[in-house]
Structures are given as C-alpha cells and as structure tokens.
Write a sequence for this structure.
C-alpha cells in the first residue's frame, strides 16, 4: 500500500490498530501487538499517543512484545529499546507496565536460551501475535533477523551484520561502542502473527523494498519471507515504493 507520505501512512496503520484494540475489548480479549523500534514506527507511535489523549483510546487490554534488544544493554541506557519504547509510547498511554515485554539485554549469556523460549511461550499462551509491526534494515533484516536467518528461526541471540552496526553506530558514538550482538524474536514467530505490517519510508529503502517484494524468497533477505504470509502488507511512502 503506497501513501502520499509517512504521516498519512502512519495514521492509517494507527487506525487499524485502534480498531483491532476495540474489537478485542468488546470480546474481553487481550490484544497482542508485536512492536518494532527504529525510526520507521515513530510516527505510528505518536499517532497512537494522540488517539489515547484526544480520542480516549485505551490500551488496558493491550499486551506488547518487542522484536528485539541489543545485547548487552542496560534498560536505562540512552540507546536501549526499553528507553525508546517508554519515551515514545508506553509512558504516554494507559498500558499496564506488566503487559509490556522487551527482550532483556541484562541477562547472563547462559540464561539467554531459556529466556528466549519463555518469551515465545508467553506469546503462545496469549494465542499468538494479533498484529506485528516491522521496519526493515538496509539488508532486508526484520527485527534483528539478519541475512541467513532461517524461516523457522527461533527467538535467540544473534550476531549483528557489519552493515547493521554501521547504521547503528551514529547512535552509539562510533562503531567501537556499537553492540555486536542482540536478542531477536525469530522469523517463525513473526510469520505466525495473524497480521503483519511492514513500514518503510524514503528512497533509501526503495531498493531493498523491491528486492523483498518482487525478488526471490530467500533467507539472504529475511523480509522476502513475508511474500509467503497470508496477511502481510508493506505500507510505504512514495519514496520507498519508487522502484516497484
Ligand atoms: C534496527 C531494528 C529493526 C528496524 C531497523 C530499521 O535494526 N532492530 O527492527 O527495522 O533498525 O530501522 P529504521 O526504521 O530506523 O530504518
């Protein structure tokens, strides 16, 4: 779906999420959202905050699972995804803190595998992800599922690609301070989400968008797996769609 600009696109996605939250509220069910970080969902989060503040949208029945977190990472660090989510969304809406899940960047290495399988079990116990928001990395990564991630990959500790670290290094004041690893939700849980919306803005993303949407389905470009999802939409502005 191509929109005039990212603001119009973000508004439309926020509207869809609001509708889903309300349907789930009327059914007295939790609404399970998979959330992403990065610059792409920022407009969506500010629109959701606006719907809460101006139109009384309540998030009391919403349970969220973020895709990823750098490892190691302290939650109060400026670059943590915990900080990102609290500042841009959680602290500005009425979601219950215990309903917000973000992979824990403070674990001992030996604890990670167990932690990741519990993260997935929690998602399963709620009936899976109702709606998953994704951004896309320049190499086609989703979450931190880098090139080479398998379609059935689990939630796990991963090594970040050099290109991903270079992109992140501006936030970390240089490559040497940029984490080399992260914990990411696996491709399998993303593919199991009932609905997937991938957001991409600007011409800089146009080549990887074309490769993901029109190219071969390959683990070299994890976003291409979404071609095989039965309810996935790439929500784009004109720039990101310009090579389709
Ligand atoms: C990071 C995140 C991804 C995100 C990507 C793109 O790698 N872990 O989830 O999709 O950045 O970021 P942006 O939206 O800023 O282009």
């Amino acid at each position: 779906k191509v929109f005039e600009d990212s603001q119009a696109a973000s508004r439309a996605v926020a509207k869809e999420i609001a509708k889903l939250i309300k349907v789930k509220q009327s059914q007295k069910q939790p609404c399970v959202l998979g959330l992403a970080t990065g610059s792409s969902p920022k407009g969506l989060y500010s629109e959701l905050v606006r719907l809460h503040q101006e139109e009384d949208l309540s998030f009391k029945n919403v349970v969220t699972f973020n895709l990823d977190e750098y490892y190691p990472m302290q939650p109060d660090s400026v670059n943590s995804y915990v900080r990102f989510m609290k500042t841009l969304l959680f602290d500005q809406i009425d979601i219950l803190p215990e309903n917000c899940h973000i992979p824990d960047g403070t674990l001992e290495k030996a604890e990670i595998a167990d932690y990741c399988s519990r993260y997935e079990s929690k998602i399963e116990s709620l009936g899976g992800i109702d709606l998953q928001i994704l951004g896309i990395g320049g190499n086609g990564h989703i979450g931190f599922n880098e090139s080479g991630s398998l379609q059935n990959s689990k939630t796990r500790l991963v090594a970040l690609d050099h290109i991903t670290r270079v992109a992140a290094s501006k936030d970390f004041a240089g490559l040497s301070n940029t984490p080399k690893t992260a914990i990411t939700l696996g491709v399998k849980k993303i593919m199991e989400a009932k609905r997937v919306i991938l957001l991409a803005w600007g011409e800089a993303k146009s080549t990887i968008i074309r490769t993901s949407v029109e190219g071969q389905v390959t683990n070299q470009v994890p976003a291409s797996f979404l071609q095989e999802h039965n309810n996935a939409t790439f929500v784009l502005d004109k720039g990101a769609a310009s090579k389709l």
Summary: The mean pLDDT is 98. The chain has one domain: 2-237.
